[in-house]
């Protein structure tokens, strides 16, 4: 079996929904507008606009009879909305609907990386003002992983200053100090990141907020080179490149979660209930610590270098354990081969 390719279509659907919601008030304000002119204003082709108009014809109020649906008239290449199905009526929210919108907007305002936070806060203020006491109950919104450190980093990024950070790199198991010029804050899979130009690496890097051990806001403005580009995180933070090391593991039933948590290039059934899993890693040092942390139900199949590293560290750990045993105590059998194969 293989892992599915990147998901597609959801972004296009969201864009079309936004366009349809904007289309009716746009046409209401411009009766008799030429389709070509409307397509140009809306940034779509004439064909796409005609497809949107055909979809609008089957949209409307519950009941969805002829008198409930949006209707329009065509005069050659001109279009006029003749019935808008009440889309221009003032929106009236129930208390539950108003409260749900307030909670959603507060959560959106707290999400790192929101492109136009001012627009979110303006919309929130309008709804709270219109709803009045309907949403007067105190509501506290906190995203997963939204710690005090994340809030401090978000404020620092918004001030547009360069930061000196002490950062722990899990792949190399080391902490380094570097100066970064932040681009934005992001939230991916429940974790907060600072995306920034790293002066040490001379490239754009993602820094996990919970791995920034310390940071200092400098007295200089963040200066991001014109060649720097934000990362495409559509498929997640880690996007394995073909030049990264490829490792193959034989895993038992209890370790199959690996195939859901990490991007795997190949997953195949093996002997019994075991699977053969191949995935790319940033380096073999990280892979060694990863395999040792999984336990004895995992065997390194390839590369041989990783198997040797795992075996050597497992044996060293067992030797250290044996030397710490009291006189006369029996050491456990050597399980190093369970990780590395023999």
From TrEMBL:
InterPro entries: CBASS_pafABC_assoc_protein, PafC-like, PafC_HTH, WCX_dom, WYL_dom. Residues 150-215 form the WYL domain. Residues 248-318 form the WCX domain. It comes from the Bacteria. Residues 15-128 form the PafC HTH domain. This is Protein pafC.
């Amino acid at each position: 079996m293989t892992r599915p390719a990147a998901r597609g279509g959801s972004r296009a659907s969201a864009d079309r929904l936004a366009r349809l919601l904007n289309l009716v008030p746009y046409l209401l304000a411009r009766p008799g507008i030429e389709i070509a002119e409307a397509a140009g204003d809306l940034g779509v082709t004439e064909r796409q606009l005609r497809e949107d108009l055909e979809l609008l014809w089957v949209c409307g109020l519950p009941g969805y009879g002829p008198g409930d649906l949006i209707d329009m008239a065509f005069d050659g290449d001109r279009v006029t909305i003749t019935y808008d199905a009440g889309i221009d009526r003032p929106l009236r929210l129930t208390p539950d609907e108003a409260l749900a919108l307030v909670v959603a907007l507060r959560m959106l305002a707290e999400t790192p990386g929101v492109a136009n936070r001012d627009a979110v806060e303006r919309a929130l203020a309008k709804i709270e003002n219109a709803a009045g006491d309907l949403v007067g109950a105190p509501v506290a919104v906190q995203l997963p992983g939204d710690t005090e450190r994340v809030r401090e980093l978000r404020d620092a990024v918004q001030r547009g200053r360069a930061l000196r950070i002490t950062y722990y790199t899990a792949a190399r198991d080391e902490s380094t100090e570097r100066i970064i010029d932040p681009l934005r804050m992001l939230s991916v899979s429940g974790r907060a990141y600072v995306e920034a130009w790293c002066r040490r690496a001379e490239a754009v890097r993602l820094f996990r907020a919970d791995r920034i051990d310390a940071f200092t806001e400098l007295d200089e403005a963040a200066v991001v080179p014109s060649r720097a580009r934000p990362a495409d995180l559509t498929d997640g933070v880690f996007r394995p490149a073909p030049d990264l090391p490829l490792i193959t593991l034989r895993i038992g039933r209890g370790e199959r979660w690996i195939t859901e948590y990490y991007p795997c290039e190949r997953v195949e059934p093996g002997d019994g209930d075991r699977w053969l899993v191949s995935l790319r890693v940033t380096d073999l040092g990280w892979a060694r610590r990863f395999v040792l942390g999984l336990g004895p139900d995992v065997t390194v199949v390839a590369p041989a270098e990783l198997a040797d590293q795992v075996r050597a560290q497992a044996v060293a750990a067992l030797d250290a354990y044996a030397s710490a045993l009291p006189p006369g105590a029996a050491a456990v059998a050597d399980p190093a081969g369970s990780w590395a194969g023999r």
